[in-house]
Amino acid sequence: MKAIVYEQTGDPSVLKLVDRPVPEPGAGEVLVRLAVAGVNPTDFKARRQWPLPAGWQTPGQDGAGVVEAVGEGVDQGLIGERVWVWEAAWQRPWGTAAEYTVVPVRQAVRLGAAPFDLGACLGIPFLTAHRCLTVGEYMPEKLHAGALSDHVVLVQGGAGAVGNAAIQLARWADARVIATVSSPQKAQLAAAAGASFVVDYREQDVVEEVRKIAPEGVHTIVEVSPARNAAIDVQLLRPGGAVCVYADDGGDEVTLPIRPLMVPNARWQFVLVYTEPAVAKARAVRDVSAAVAQGAVRVGADAGLPLHHHPLAETAVAHQAVEDSLVGKALLITGEQ
User: Hey, where are the domains in the chain?
Assistant: First the structure.
């Protein structure tokens, strides 16, 4: 099979297209013939600094394709099923930037008739967004239609992949969603994703505009840039509200005022999908799958997430684009659609 491999950490030049034997699924595993793989910021961060326990790594956590074979103890009926894959490369060498990958069976989730492009976009962004929308003091453990009907959600950075996922999931759950963006183009993307209100933080006062919409404050803030936005977030939480931090764009340290957060019993929750509690991740996989089955989530420009397709041989180009803050989603075409 064709696969992208790197044997040392570094810039995109370490990524090489090679021929590798198709892996055999072990007990409890499935072999997936991939059609599309997603590229996330975590992929280039891993390529630059994560250790290589196997001495090599195929990058890519997310993808979609068809189950080709199953290991011992796995239902043979899964063979031929269309699936989406999550966390393929977390502490494992077989990522999704390849024609095949092998993962534990729970990490290959039935996709039904949904497009492979959608399946390849689900993993990291949607599971992260789900955690941000369910971990607050007054947020539900599970998402479904109506679960957030009396909630206001603020998505800081509504044009990114996680921001897009948070908007779509929150709207599916009937929240009022406010998104912040940095340009008119990104405002159009956030609105296409389903944001009820969009604030251009370069042109408008975020606190003033959000308070007009939600005078009592917001229940949850999905936060991409805590170092930049902390002072804003503190002013916008309602009592018991939560700021859910999933990235460190703009700085890796944040300073918080104690009393203004203590009085309303506010929460700052840090979110990393890989290490979140297993039960929370299982709920996220189930709920995201339900949203897909109900047609509640989409990808593409008309859903606020433009897609940029690259052949497998151009994985380095896709990695560089994501590292350069690509607007939209980079996908690798790894096999037949």
Answer: 2-123+305-333, 136-270
